[in-house]
Amino acid sequence: MRLGLALGYWGRGPDPHHLELAREAERLGYDSVWTAESWGSDAFTPLTWIAAHTTRIGLGTAVAQMAARSPTTTAMHALTLDHLSGGRMTLGLGLSGPQVVEGWYGRPFPASPLTATREYVDVVRQVLRREAPVELGEGRFHPLPYRGPDATGLGRPLRSITHPLRSGLPVLLGAEGPRNVAQTVRIADGWLPLYWSPSRPDAYGPGLASLPPGFRVAPMARVRVCDDLAEGLLAVKTMLGFYIGGMGHATRNFHADLMARMGYEEEARRIQELFLAGRREEAVLAVPDAFADEISLVGPRERIAERLELWRKGPVTDLLALAPDPHTLRVLAELNS
């Protein structure tokens, strides 16, 4: 099982420790470092900065939001950074939800998310292969060239001026629903689960039953070496309280739906209710310790070593550690060696 460092996205400003953590991860032999975006910092700029200060470690987005850029724009970002880094780029994509797509990007959330994702990946792959001008004439969400009612009619299929360094640059997808996971196995090079429980693989649907050779399963998990388990889990619960309670609408929250499928439906709805009522501290405390614990690696070194075996036994190929400190990074590297 390879190790990756997940840095997430910025809060109020850039984290002054991110570059230090990325360079330490490279020194410790980590395979990759990953950045993200929500509605603030973008995923590609910090990753480019890290690329300029490292030499070997792989670079990934987990995830870049599809609504933020047209698929050709995303492909341009990926092929450019792949060149500048010497072939270290992995493109992780996610659709996000209606709250972000419509509220932040000012675009309609696709009526058929699976079709929109499939078209997006198709266009990205066409750009990277550079076998012919990019066309998706029958595209419902990403038609190329654009032929809408307000089109000039002058658009024509184009092929990237720049030759991509790797036509097979890996494309991974963030997916939560069973149908989305099944499609990810069919069209992508890997899957980026937001919450992964090694004891509940059935929660993600039957799509994982037969994975193609080389398919990557790369979940993010908060990792923290500490003596006080309750204290360590509090950071996990805080994150879950925000995502389950506030990352979506009361009637459409993919994260809450996933928690429900994992056996915590009543608790998920209670967290939503408290968070949306403005009772955020109560929402965090309502997150069950058991749920926070099964999707993370927290506690003393011996406990993490024991639980790490569960992660190795399943389909996980890459553990992307949300690790807050160099000590935890080092311990995890030693335990995984």
From TrEMBL:
Residues 17-316 form the Luciferase-like domain. SUPFAM superfamilies: Bacterial luciferase-like (SSF51679). The keyword Transcription does not apply. It comes from the Bacteria. Keywords: Oxidoreductase. Pfam families: Bac_luciferase (PF00296). The keyword Cell inner membrane does not apply. CDD domains: Tetrahydromethanopterin_reductase (cd01097). GO terms for molecular function: oxidoreductase activity, acting on paired donors, with incorporation or reduction of molecular oxygen. This is 5,10-methylene tetrahydromethanopterin reductase. It comes from Streptomyces antibioticus. The lineage of its organism: Bacteria, Bacillati, Actinomycetota, Actinomycetes, Kitasatosporales.
